[in-house]
């Protein structure tokens, strides 16, 4: 079993512990990677460790969506109710378990995510009544690094029962605040923070990129 990640607990002033719950989506099958992405190391740290470290800066309530047998040693775990339905199943399980209104959903395979961006995302979500606050970068929406209000669970459950597992089309059914790439650029954020890892080759290629962004 991999060593537990080092999690620190500084919180941004604008966000209180009751405002936001962070859920790390770690339940993917990782077929192209060939092993569990959560335990892949980049820059000497697992992807799960990186995700927990970043999320724990903006909230003291961090949970993992995945298999308790794998992840319970690292923190509270939420299991999918709709199995094998992809990320939407994880989002549904997270929101069903959520106590508060604002819920940060963060994929485990976004190792270049920045604390400053999560702070910005949360502030934008708090300033709108939109059900979803989601960035648009790198040519598309980023639903696995977004803020969801608890109400979205109703939309997710209906879609899952109808076996419609794609996330993006569901945003048309609720009020959605899209942070477009121009806005993100003006705020000082690069689309590179949304780069994910899917294969061992990508891990090797991005070791140097990780070094450049380390400490971001």
Per-chain topology:
Layout: E1 20-25, E2 41-42, E3 45-46, H1 47-58, E4 62-65, H2 68-71, E5 77-78, H3 87-97, E6 102-107, H4 115-126, E7 132-137, E8 140-141, E9 145-149, H5 152-161, E10 176-179, H6 181-186, H7 200-205, H8 207-213
Parallel strand pairs: 1-4, 1-6, 4-5, 7-10
Antiparallel strand pairs: 2-3, 6-9, 7-8, 7-9
In DSSP terms, counting alpha (H) and pi (I) runs of 4 or more, how many helices?
A: 8
The ordered H/E elements are: EEEHEHEHEHEEEHEHHH
Name of the CATH homologous superfamily: Spore Coat Polysaccharide Biosynthesis Protein SpsA, Chain A
Largest sheet: 8 strands, mixed
Mean pLDDT: 85
Question: What count of structural domains?
Answer: 1
